[in-house]
Amino acid sequence: MKLVQVAGWLGSGKTTLVIALGKGLSKNGKTVAIVVNEIGAIPVDGKVVEEYGLTVNDIGGGCICCQVSGNMFRTIKALYEGPRPDIVIIEPTGLAVPGSIRETIRAGAHEMDISMGPTIVLIDIPRAEKLLGYEGLKRLVTAQMVDADIIALSKVDMATEGELLEARGAVCVVNPRAEIIHLSTSKGEGVAALIQAVTETRVEA
To answer: Hey, how many other C-beta atoms are within 10 angstroms of the C-beta on 101?
Structure first.
């Protein structure tokens, strides 16, 4: 069972990408489960994903890298002991730091045959200057990018060439090792590359 994270700040397009990945992986013969974490009491994103016929496991009430990390691990273990899908896509809240989630998984991974797929972090290009310009947001968004194996520059169809170049430059400074993919889920750009990465890439847990 392979675990993949799709992280990023609020409104960066995570749920739309998760749906596209789930549908694409399913068409390629992979069984997929999605773990959605929302801070609010009602996990709206999970309901949206379910409308597309994908299996969803909601974890509400907090951020899975802190208050409800135990619930997250229990969910992963239940999936492993039950349907054991090929791929589990974890969509954490926009406030989560992927490295903390990976540490939680690592703590119990020795009990299960689990591999780690790539951590994908979305950066919303039209808002990149704002996200990286305010100190409070910058610290969190930068921490998310540092943990990424792949940084998807999202909403490229809504960005100017100058905005794209500036975002790429900022990303390379923060995390020069990450693969950068241009993404427009609504236009289909970059989705196939991410599906391939999710299928083929394994990283150290």
So the answer is: 26
pLDDT tens per residue across span 58-98: 444 333 333 334 567 778 888 888 888 888 898 888 888 88
At residue 20, what is the residue type?
A
**Residue length, the chain?**
205
The full set of domain ranges for the chain reads 2-200
Report residue 87 as tokens.
Answer: 């791929």
* pTM to 2 decimal places: 0.85
Q: How far is CA 196 from CA 56, 77, 130, 141, 163, in A?
A: 22, 25, 31, 25, 27
Identify the CATH assignment for 2-200 out of 1.10.630.10, 3.40.50.880, 3.30.565.10, 3.40.50.300. 3.40.50.300
Q: Are 126 and 13 in contact (CB under 8 A)?
A: no
Are residues 116 and 106 in contact, defined by beta-carbon separation less than 8 angstroms? no
End-to-end CA gap in the chain = 12
Average pLDDT, the chain: 81
